[in-house]
What we know:
The first copy, chain A, has helices at 12-27, 34-41, 46-52, 55-72, 75-78, 85-102, 106-116, 118-125, 127-132, 135-143, 151-167, 169-176, 180-203.
Amino acid sequence: xxxxxxxxxxxxxxxxxxxxxxxxxxxxxxxxxxxxxxxxxxxxxxxxxxxxxxxxxxxxxxxxxxxxxxxxxxxxxxxxxxxxxxxxxxxxxxxxxxxxxxxxxxxxxxxxxxxxxxxxxxxxxxxxxxxxxxxxxxxxxxxxxxxxxxxxxxxxxxxxxxxxxxxxxxxxxxxxxxxxxxxxxxxxxxxxxxxxxxxxxxxx
Amino acid sequence: xxxxxxxxxxxxxxxxxxxxxxxxxxxxxxxxxxxxxxxxxxxxxxxxxxxxxxxxxxxxxxxxxxxxxxxxxxxxxxxxxxxxxxxxxxxxxxxxxxxxxxxxxxxxxxxxxxxxxxxxxxxxxxxxxxxxxxxxxxxxxxxxxxxxxxxxxxxxxxxxxxxxxxxxxxxxxxxxxxxxxxxxxxxxxxxxxxxxxxxxxxxx
DNA sequence: AAAAAAGTTAATCAAATGATTAAATCAATC
DNA sequence: GATTGATTTAATCATTTGATTAACTTTTTT
Lengths: 204, 204
């Protein structure tokens, strides 16, 4: 019978899934060996197939979970009818920064998924409905009614300012010669800066 | 003897290198099969090893070339003592947009390289000297002397606004429901927008 | 034109890799 | 506590994959 008490991530199945998450996000699907996952989990190789049927299926599970983490950070804020545009901007930056500080491999993993399998990403999350028709985009459209650029242009720049620093963090670290802690501090500073810049751009 | 007339990319060696560039940039090192490269090149599998010794060596060559394309777009502009800060901003955006419109796979390829092998990237290009001590950064530091944020923060946001749209282009296409041509037009519009926003941020 | 060098090909090798199996161990239900 | 079912293990399989080889062809040199 399966251990299932207080979900202490201590069942074999959970150990494997956690190991798979770690390795897949760090190295990508093709570079990941099932033996890497087994070793990282400290479990026998055959248990991967016993619990998850195949490498591909295990990856599918990790991918959907990770996409979920990415999207669920966005959707509720986007579709909250009770917050102002400025509040939404602050919350998006804050939520994503917290998520990526905790899980820095997510941005590049998602970008790679989007490029390898755009349909799966777009379908899975119904991004179109949840973003293009969100309250956020309605507010943006109103704000930019007389502007020279579209809400999409703002959105892309906004997301770029949030996500790019994490996807390029080893470069930042190299340029600044900073430790892991200093890098984190630098990235955290952007919680204040990015919203300020975003609002500035919107006023233009 | 090697054909070497007008460099029409028609020698076997060039065909293989072009095929390798195409496949490596699209799928990454681990997901690329040497047989993919041979098939894409329309040449015999053994010729890859005949001309390039190993898959790894061929990838090294492509990687260094691609890093070169990325860096050489930046360095000359950064270190030009005869242009203003605003002019540098315009040129960087323009040069990178042109490069990525032509070769859209570069951004994600570089980001992956940076994350898999930061040292090689930083060493190879002497990024630190060429960027941190560039004329551009001197101008930035002067401009931001009394600002609340550092040149690095600006630089990262600036690069994010330029690069992110290309790394996330399939998402943009999905959201807008746009054709390849429409996507290109959208990305080209940013040649005007991003410099305007960058200057705005600098004034703050 | 003969000899040598360069280029190309199909076949094959050895290692890596995802997956499976059958036996062994552990847990829980009667 | 014996039995049944779930879990774990080591060994093995079949395929894929990067690389090599040896024969063959084309090109260059003498």
